[in-house]
Amino acid sequence: MTADGAYPQRWRANGGAVGAYPQRWRANGGADGAYPQRWRVSGAADGAHPQRWRVSGAAAGAHPQRWRANGAAAGAHPQRWRANGAAAGAHPQRWWVNGTAVVLILNAGG
């Protein structure tokens, strides 16, 4: 499961991502890299930004974005996230639950 896009990042179902940023993403939920963000399959994300990510679908933090397990995300950006893996909105990102992401644009800086 590899994703290519604006950045040459590689995303694998086994959890490793390498690319422009030395971030590491693991299926067991840990992300380490340029930003001290933590991502867990159990649903919590902690790090530079006080955002909370839950498998049940709600995300609250610095940005008023809402993430739902049924796939809809609304907030500062009109992005749409679906459990079946398609994301459309301000950025042409594609997300698949089986672990493939295409055309990733990550604005981790804020």
Summarize the structure in words.
The protein has 110 residues and is mainly β. The protein has strands at residues 10-11, 17-18, 24-25, 31-32, 38-39, 45-46, 52-53, 59-60, 66-67, 73-74, 80-81, 87-88, 94-95, 101-102. The chain starts with 9 loop residues before the first strand and ends in an 8-residue tail after the last strand.
The structural domain count equals 1
Strand arrangement, largest sheet?
A: 1-2
Q: Judging from the principal axes of the Cα atoms, what is the shape?
A: globular
Uncertain runs: 1-105
Descriptive tags:
14 strands; mainly beta; 0% helix; 110 residues; globular; two-stranded antiparallel sheet; disordered N terminus
Give a nutshell description of this structure:
This protein has one domain. 0% of the residues lie in helices and 25% in strands. It contains no helices and 14 strands.
Question: What is this structure's SSE topology?
Answer:
Blueprint: E1 10-11, E2 17-18, E3 24-25, E4 31-32, E5 38-39, E6 45-46, E7 52-53, E8 59-60, E9 66-67, E10 73-74, E11 80-81, E12 87-88, E13 94-95, E14 101-102
Antiparallel strand pairs: 1-2, 3-4, 5-6, 7-8, 9-10, 11-12, 13-14
